[in-house]
Structure to design on (505 residues):
């Protein structure tokens, strides 16, 4: 009477079994917690295959803000971290969660905004001056507000500019870089972004790059090898291979070779 | 709007290209959500029926709690499962975080209250209708459960579909516990979030169209099965 029901149940169960089996198959992988800027720009799609080919190790990337990446690392849920908050990274090592931190690459932050530039920051000589102009003219500014590496860098710049950003013009969005750019485009606001996300971003609408090139906008990425002492279950040996590969000649070359629209987005600078 | 026009052509191009990445994303979406609905149904159907038949102190509180949990924000469910499965959490030993299994667990938590609460309501109504007959047959309440569930099956099909809708549409929970890892835990909804954050709106909307089409197809199949079964029974 209910052949169909039996049939459906049987097929669902078979699929489920086959799927559970396939989950157990592959063990040669590490989990990497990294930032949305590296993932969204397509960097990992470009460099991980080279690493996998050389070592047979797959890298599973969880892309989150740097603050959340630290939390994932502290809880022992990732084998390695690639993030961009040098001060936070040093603290992370000092706290004993990571055994080693290495410089891997850098790019820079830029300030984008509505093309008519109401605050006039395109005439600024320094980023401090640009920030002051935005605050003084009370032009809308979209901040990540999510404790990410970019957010932390932005807050440091406000501090250096002697400004406590608050008021209706300063909008904390609490979202990732891409969503923040979408929102900034929607409300004609200024925003600080890493160059990689900006170049790879497809929905700029009226937004345009207005300020760049100040040394204070330098954006360093570092690789953290998590401590096996603190979390013995981590795939420390595999993660160490990834960590070392990033700063190896081959890894650095793979990073240098990655381009979007003919423009390199990350510059290798391992010592 | 150009975006929506592009979205349709993007969706069409994606489907026609049979892109292998897209196929694996679609397959994983269906696997996770169907598995979650299957597990949730096995638990929630008897639970809902039992709740309809037994009267015990605190029953109303349980009903209210179940009804309220129908509105549980996915991101909260995701966070709870994250804390549970994280290596620093009580079930960390299992090593399930950032795997499809973690996504299934989170979706079961989201779907279970919906199926249980709606089953309770359907079975209670049916029991009101047939109470006399069932009692005259001398059935114990435990024996009544399969009978009533079977009699309510057409209504329950819709209940299960509501659960499936919730599972396939949510993004907050699977994003947190799955991590949206390319090729491992990336499903339709998390891909849509990712493409939106890249500003690739036509692709995001195109994936949305495909997701909607899939869910429509599954509902159509379920509807057809239900109709055919009804007709056979006369």
């Amino acid at each position: 009477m209910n052949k169909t029901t039996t049939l459906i149940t049987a097929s669902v169960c078979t699929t489920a079994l086959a799927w559970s089996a396939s989950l157990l198959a592959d063990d040669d992988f590490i989990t990497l917690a990294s930032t949305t800027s590296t993932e969204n720009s397509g960097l990992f799609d470009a460099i991980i295959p080279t690493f996998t080919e050389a070592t047979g190790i797959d890298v599973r990337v969880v892309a989150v803000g740097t603050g959340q990446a630290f939390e994932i690392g502290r809880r022992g849920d990732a084998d390695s971290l690639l993030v961009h908050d040098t001060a936070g990274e040093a603290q992370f090592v000092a706290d004993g969660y990571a055994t080693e931190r290495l410089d891997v690459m850098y790019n820079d932050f830029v300030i984008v905004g509505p093309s008519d530039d109401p605050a006039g920051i395109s005439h600024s000589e320094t980023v401090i001056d640009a920030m002051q102009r935005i605050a003084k003219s009370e032009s809308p500014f979209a901040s990540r507000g999510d404790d990410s590496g970019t957010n932390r860098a932005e807050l440091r710049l406000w501090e250096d500019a002697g400004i406590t950003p608050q008021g209706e013009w300063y909008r904390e969005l609490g979202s990732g870089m891409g969503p923040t750019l979408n929102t900034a485009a929607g409300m004609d606001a200024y925003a600080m972004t890493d160059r990689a996300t900006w170049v790879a971003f497809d929905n700029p609408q009226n937004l345009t790059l207005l300020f760049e090139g100040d040394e204070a906008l330098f954006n360093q990425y570092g690789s953290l090898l998590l401590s096996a002492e603190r979390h013995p279950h981590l795939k420390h040996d595999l993660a160490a291979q990834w960590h070392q590969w990033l700063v190896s000649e081959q890894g650095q070359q793979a990073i240098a070779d990655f381009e979007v629209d003919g423009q390199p987005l990350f510059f290798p600078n391992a010592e | 709007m150009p975006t929506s026009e592009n979205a349709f052509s993007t969706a069409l191009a994606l489907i026609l290209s049979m892109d292998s990445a897209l196929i694996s994303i679609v397959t994983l979406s269906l696997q996770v959500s169907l598995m979650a609905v299957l597990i949730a149904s096995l638990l929630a159907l008897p639970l809902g029926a039992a709740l309809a038949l037994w009267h015990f102190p605190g029953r109303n509180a349980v009903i209210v709690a179940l009804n309220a949990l129908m509105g549980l924000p996915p991101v909260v469910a995701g966070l709870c499962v994250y804390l549970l499965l994280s290596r620093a959490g009580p079930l960390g030993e299992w090593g399930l975080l950032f795997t499809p299994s973690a996504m299934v667990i989170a979706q079961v938590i989201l779907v279970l209250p919906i199926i249980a609460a709606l089953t309770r309501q359907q079975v209670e109504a049916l029991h009101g209708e047939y109470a006399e007959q069932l009692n005259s047959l001398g059935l114990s309440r435990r024996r009544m459960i399969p009978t009533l569930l079977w009699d309510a099956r057409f209504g329950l099909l819709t209940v299960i579909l509501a659960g499936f809708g919730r599972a396939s549409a949510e993004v907050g929970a699977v994003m947190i516990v799955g991590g949206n890892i390319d090729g491992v835990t990336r499903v339709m909804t998390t891909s849509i979030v990712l493409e939106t954050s890249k500003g690739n709106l036509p692709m995001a909307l195109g994936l949305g169209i495909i997701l909607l089409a899939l869910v429509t197809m599954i509902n159509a199949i379920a509807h057809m099965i239900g109709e055919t079964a009804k007709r056979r029974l006369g």
